[in-house]
Write a structure and sequence with these properties.
This protein has a domain of 42 residues: RNA polymerase ii, chain L (Rubrerythrin, domain 2). Helices cover 25% and strands 17% of the residues. The protein is built from two helices and three strands; from the N terminus they run H-H-E-E-E. A three-stranded antiparallel sheet has the order 2-1-3, with no helix packed on it. Strand 1 and strand 2 form a beta hairpin.
């Protein structure tokens, strides 16, 4: 195997660092046991503690306030 073939294989096998950096984790609370779980957009949604698949999004710390007219 030549150097050019080896470099082509290594480039295609490595995950792009840009794609990994763009995936941010979001916290969810399990609907059954209440444990906090963090998921990225590509993770399978199963609770780490009990395996339940229904989650609730965490509330904002300060809450949201809107002005209505």
């Amino acid at each position: 195997m030549g150097d050019t073939e080896r470099s082509l294989l290594s480039k295609s096998d490595e995950p792009s660092s840009l794609g990994i950096m763009n995936m941010k984790k979001v916290s969810y609370i399990c609907g059954w046991c209440g444990k906090e779980n963090e998921f990225t957009s590509r993770d399978e949604l199963n609770c780490i503690g009990c395996g339940y698949r229904i989650f609730y999004k965490k509330r904002l710390a300060g809450g949201a306030q809107y002005e209505a007219r």
